[in-house]
Amino acid sequence: MADNDAAKSSTRRGPRFIGKLRFCWSWFVAGALLLVLGPPILLVARLANHRDWVYPVALFGARAWLRLSGVKVDVKGLELLDPKQPYVFIANHWSYLDGAPLFACTGRRMGLVGKKELLKAPILGYGMGFVNVIAIDRSNRERAVETIRIATERLRSGISFGVCAEGTRARPGEMLPFKKGAFHMAVKAGVPIVPIAFKNSDQLMGKGTGEAWPGTIDMVMLQPVETSWVATDEDLQRLVDQVQGLIMKELGVEKLTPRRPK
Description:
Layout (H helix, E strand, L loop, with lengths): L1 H8 L6 H33 L5 H15 L2 E6 L11 E4 L7 H6 L5 E6 L8 H4 L5 E4 L4 H16 L3 E5 L16 H9 L3 E7 L1 H5 L9 E7 L11 H19 L11
Parallel strand pairs: 1-7, 2-5, 2-6, 3-4, 3-5
Antiparallel strand pairs: 6-7
Helix pairs in contact: 2-3, 6-7
């Protein structure tokens, strides 16, 4: 089944040059939104000492980017969640598109954990801290541990976090082993994990294609998974395997793809 899905995911929806143009358009829109919305709200929020003013603008920007890129998000499973409960949302990662619905479509105030390279992006890198987007440096264990500690404190304060736990995009139809940082966060904060399966995002902007196409991402939230039983490293690995297994089953991915050497 996974092989069929992979083949389907890599099927182009039109001439390749159209996909390339749409890909460039999508990133032009992202840059334009950052340039138009970012500096004014960051300046006003900084001067007024109201960092929380940035969040609704960031939500608008994320939704506008998806809409102007021709992407809709169909969210399923919101009824499974407790509106008063913070969660760690853990998703698969097939596309650059995945972060926007993870941030904007869960129905609650969200933070994200992303790669340190995001800090180098103009405007975005500076504004990340205003909306609880935390960059993790996996090449430096001490910094990575500190990042997880900060995110855990914010979880305890009631802010949910979203993480694409593979750490990088997988190729269409594939899934890489999950990293454990987000699971540590959930266990330390004592909050449940919500597995999320992103379907079709690889068809719309898959890794290695350099193309973008309009369509709908199915964002499927699965039953929350309790973390209170985790007490040992072996328990933590079982939790990782359980959550990843649930997402793989929903996506129809039958086996993990080994990480390629860097």
